[in-house]
Design brief:
The complex is a heterodimer. Chain A is α+β, with helices and mostly antiparallel strands. Chain A has helices at residues 3-10, 16-23, 27-39, 79-86, 112-123, and strands spanning 62-70, 91-96, 103-109, 129-136, 142-143, 146-147. Classes of the chains: A alpha+beta, B alpha/beta. The site of pyridoxal-5'-phosphate has 13 residues of chain B, from helix 6.
């Protein structure tokens, strides 16, 4: 991966001047390259990784992973149903999968009921959906490459040769 | 009552604790210290290497190995060194697997130095060479490197210190604490000076993987230098394996057969599980090194820029994971700077003179830390420098 992208993927809050220093290029060049990455649709957005287990008031507390079996359309294959599913705000990720089912979806809700209702009332009745299997996430250990466990302690001591 | 002062060998008694140790004790008394003081990677050992160690344990690989190390490992080391230093060492009798680069340094010095021998030590440098030379009765002769030479060893400085008694030259590049490297064109005149002399070079190349923008060049690559060099390297820095205690030395068999005797009586063999892990490291972890080097490189640029920006001149080091900013503009000595910084801002860096007198006026800052950590620390050092310059 492009080294600028790698840095941004890890920490999108670095300023252009910091990025420039680290990559040995000018701030101006960083700005231009980011703009190009955005225009080309390579950078699609900037998220914050939140440890919901630690933040009491962040709303959505339950995540579920749903396996969806669907029947593809003659013309558009899986794209049409995938796009339809993507429309819902509750849905965070939609992936076309190889293997035993077709679409893998993650959704967020405030409680189990929320999610069950969403699956029963919104997803299952969609035309083309053959079956669903819902898995609730019990605990997250690592999210988007970031370790969510307790504060990592530097065991190296303060000073060494 | 027993009189310990008559028990302990005089040379041991005379050994001074390292300047780093003193500073460590001081820092230890404080809370919430933001440390920039450690000389080891902040990465954990890559998982495949740890996995290989677990597998070795599961398979019951818990016995001594051959004195000089597992043959497979020596073979891998031979290939590895051939690849980076373009020089062949036979796995049969020209390589010893040691307990860290540290043991390789200790063995080499003990095997060659006799009382009265002079050993040239290029300073500033890692802290262990001098005391070990002294323990053998040798006389350390310091060859200073200077900021205006980018802390490189020059042929001129070397020649000035060579006498009839000179037995060895310790060549520690990429350098801890300065981060300086010796490029091919810097080494050529050094090799020229040494070519016809009866002087052994101890080339401590423990940071050979950590260079930025160019590959490390070893002195053994030069004509007639293989026969007069002990090449020392290890797994600690390149593979983030400090705690595994594994390194190696490569040298002509006439030397290795002698050095091996000390290793055989003093150590028997290096840790077996670590040796299995090291085979995996050399075989399959090139991409892990590349990833770490990329990371260090970005932090290196960040630190050089950061220190220059807060008014501490910082030369651009091309190796290891240290920057070595000059603090002379503050009017403080290295020790004063580090103590005051620690007391007022809770930031721990190492005074440059801990690595030799010519390190006075500098501080060693390790960038083996996360970017966020470095950012915070440099901001605090910036505040400190501003306050010192304003109020004295
Ligand atoms: C220049 C240099 N040589 C050798 C060593 C020893 O490393 P190890 O014994 O862990 O291989 C170090 C460690 O800090 C070092 O900085």
């Amino acid at each position: 991966m492009d080294s600028l992208l790698k840095l941004l993927k890890k920490n999108a809050r670095l300023s252009n001047s910091e990025l420039g220093v680290m990559l040995g290029i000018s701030e101006q060049e960083v700005a231009e390259r980011i703009e190009k990455l955005e225009n080309d649709g390579i950078i699609k957005g900037y998220n914050t990784v939140i440890n919901e287990q630690a933040a009491a008031d962040c709303g959505d507390l339950v995540t579920a992973y749903i396996e969806l079996k669907v029947s593809p359309k003659a013309q558009s294959g899986f794209d049409e149903i995938a796009r339809t599913v993507s429309q819902y705000d509750e849905v965070e990720n939609v992936w076309l999968m190889s293997g035993g089912y077709d679409l893998g979806i993650t959704i967020k809700g405030t409680n189990l009921m929320d999610i069950s209702l969403f699956v029963a009332q919104r997803l299952a009745p969609l035309e083309g959906v053959l079956s669903t299997a819902t898995h609730f996430v019990l605990k997250k250990y690592k999210d988007n490459g970031i370790d969510l466990s307790d504060k990592i302690i530097d065991e190296r001591g303060l000073v060494s040769p | 009552m027993i009189d310990y002062s008559r028990i302990i060998n005089k040379k041991t008694r005379d050994m001074k604790p390292s300047g780093i140790r003193k500073f460590f004790d001081l820092a230890q008394t404080m809370e919430n210290v933001i440390a920039l003081g450690v000389g080891e990677p902040n990465f954990q050992t890559p998982w495949p290497i740890r996995r290989a160690a677990i597998t070795a344990l599961e398979r019951g690989k818990t016995f001594y190995t051959a004195n000089s190390g597992l043959y497979n490992l020596r073979q891998s080391i031979s290939e590895y060194v051939k690849d980076y230093a373009k020089t062949e060492y036979s796995p049969d009798d020209e390589i010893i697997v040691t307990v860290g680069g540290s043991e390789a340094i200790d063995l080499s010095i003990r095997a060659i130095v006799e009382p009265g021998d002079e050993v040239l030590i290029v300073e500033p440098c890692f802290v262990c060479y001098k005391p070990i030379v002294e323990l053998s009765g040798g006389i350390p002769v310091v060859v200073e490197t200077k900021a205006e030479d980018d802390f490189k060893l020059t042929a001129k400085a070397l020649k000035e210190k060579i006498t009839e008694k000179t037995k060895a030259l310790i060549l520690p590049f990429p350098n801890n604490p300065t981060g300086a490297i010796m490029k091919k064109e810097d080494l050529a005149p050094i090799a020229e000076v040494l070519r016809d002399m009866n002087i052994i070079v101890l080339s401590d190349e423990i940071y050979s993987e950590l260079t930025y923008g160019r590959k490390h060049c070893s002195i053994v690559e030069f004509d007639s230098m293989r026969e007069r060099t002990i090449l020392i390297n290890g797994f600690s820095k390149a593979f983030a394996m400090t705690g595994w205690r594994l390194g190696f030395l490569c040298a002509p068999k006439e030397l290795v057969s002698q050095i091996l005797k000390i290793h055989q009586y003093g150590i028997m063999s290096s840790p077996t599980v670590s040796q299995y892990a090291a085979i995996e490291a050399l075989k399959n972890c090139r991409s892990d090194i590349d990833m770490m080097v990329d990371e260090y490189n970005m932090r290196r640029r960040f630190c050089v820029h950061g220190f220059n920006e807060i008014g501490l001149d910082c030369f651009e080091p091309e190796g290891a994971f240290y920057v070595f900013p000059c603090i002379k503009s503050t009017g403080l000595s290295s020790q004063e700077f580090c103590e005051k910084l620690l007391y007022t801002k809770n930031v721990a860096v190492v005074p440059g003179d801990a690595f030799g007198e010519c390190g006075e006026g500098f501080i060693r800052v390790s960038y083996a830390y996360s970017l966020e950590h470095l950012k915070k620390a440099i901001r605090k050092i910036g505040e400190f420098v501003r306050e010192i310059k304003e109020n004295g």
